[in-house]
Protein: Small GTP-binding protein
Amino acid sequence: MGLEEDIRAIEDEIKNTKYNKATSQHIGRLKAKLAKIKDDMVMRAIKSVGGGEGFSVKKSGDGTIVLVGFPSVGKSTLLNKLTGAQSETGSYAFTTLTVVPGLMEYKGAKIQILDIPGLIAGAAMGKGRGKEVIAVVRTADLIVILGDVFNAVHVDVLMRELYDSGIRINKPKPDITIKRTGGGGIRLNRVGAVKLGLEEVRAILGENKIMNADVLIRGSNVTQDDLVDAMQGNRIYIPAFIAINKVDLISDAQRKEVEEHMREKYGVDPIMISAHKGYHIEELQDAIYEHLGFVRIYMKPYGEEADMEEPMIMRKGSTIEDICHRLHRDFVDQFRYAKIWGTSVKHDAAKVGLKHVVEDNDIVTVVTKL
Ligand SMILES: Nc1nc2c(ncn2[C@@H]2O[C@H](COP(=O)(O)OP(=O)(O)OP(=O)(O)O)[C@@H](O)[C@H]2O)c(=O)[nH]1
Ligand SMILES: [K+]
Ligand SMILES: [Mg+2]
Structure:
C-alpha cells in the first residue's frame, strides 16, 4: 500500500504546482520519479506474466484489434456478432476469463478480434488479472474502447489504466533520442521550436541517474511527459476509438445525451451500437477498417487483366517495395519498374519505383528482369 500512497502524493503535488520557469525542473523531477515508481510496479509485473495460461494468442490476419471495457459492457456479445465466434456471455461480471480470438472478414481484409476479461480500476496494478489482460492489449494494432450506455463514465477509468500501463492512445511517438555517453554531461540538440529547456531535461534524466547523454528532440510540442516516456522506453503507441454499447436499452433523447457527453469530454463522436440487436454494426466495422489504415491493391500481371476479385491488403503508407516482398522474396532484387492505374499517380499506367507509396484501389503491375 505504501507505494500507492506515494504515487497519489506525487500526483497531487504535480497537480497543485503551477508550471512556470521556476517550477519546471521540480515538476520534471516529480514526473520522472512518478513514472519510475509506477513502472517498477506495472512493467516488471507485465513482463513477468509472459502470456499466462489462456493469455497467449497467436496473431493472425492483416491486423489485430482488442476490445477493452469494464465487465459486462458486452465485449463477448460483440465479438460473437462480428466474427461468429462463440465466446461465453452472461449477465454477471467476469464471464470471460481468458483471451478469446475471432476473425472478421471485411472488405477483403482479415481482421483478428480479441475478446478479453473486463478491465477494472486498478488493473494496471494487477487487479482482476489486469497484468495479463494489459500484456495482451499492448500487442494490439488497434484498441476499441467499449463502454455501455449506463456506464459511459467508466471510459475515463479505462483511459487511465491504459495510460498507467504505458499505452499511449492516438498519439504519434514523439521524436526523441537519448544516447548515453561516457562523459560530458547532458548535451541537448533541438530541431524546430522545441520548448523543453536544458535544465528541465537534465532534471528529468538525473532522476533516472542519467548524467551523461546526447539528447535529440525534434518537434515543437514535445512535453516533459514525452521525455519521461522516452526515458522509460517501454511505451507503446496505439490508435483507439470509443464505442458505446446497449443503445437499444435507452430512448433517443438519452442516447443524444450520452453522445453529447462523450463529444464534450473526448472531442470525438462515439459510435453508438447495440451488439445484441446489431444496430450500427456496419459503422463499427467501417471504423475498425479505417483506423487500421488498410489499402486494397489489385494486381495486374503484365499483359493480362487485373484480378479485381481478390485485393492484396496492405497497411496505409505501404510502398511498391512492400508489395514486392509480399509477392516473392526475389522480387525486390529482380525489380525493374511498376506501373500503376489509380489515385497515387498523376496519369494511368505511370511508371514508378520501389519507394512509391500506393493508395487504396490502385491497380499495380510489377515488371521484373527476366
Ligand atoms: N440489451 C442489450 N444487452 C446486451 C448488449 N450487449 C450485451 N448485452 C448483455 O450484457 C450482458 C453482458 O454481456 P457480455 O457479452 O457477457 O459482456 P462482457 O463485456 O463480455 O462481460 P465480461 O466477460 O464479464 O467482462 C449479457 O447479458 C448480454 O446479453 C446489447 O447491445 N444490448
Ligand atoms: K458478462
Ligand atoms: Mg466477456
The chain is about 35% helix and 25% strand. The chain has a mean pLDDT of 93. Residues 2-49+174-234 form one domain.
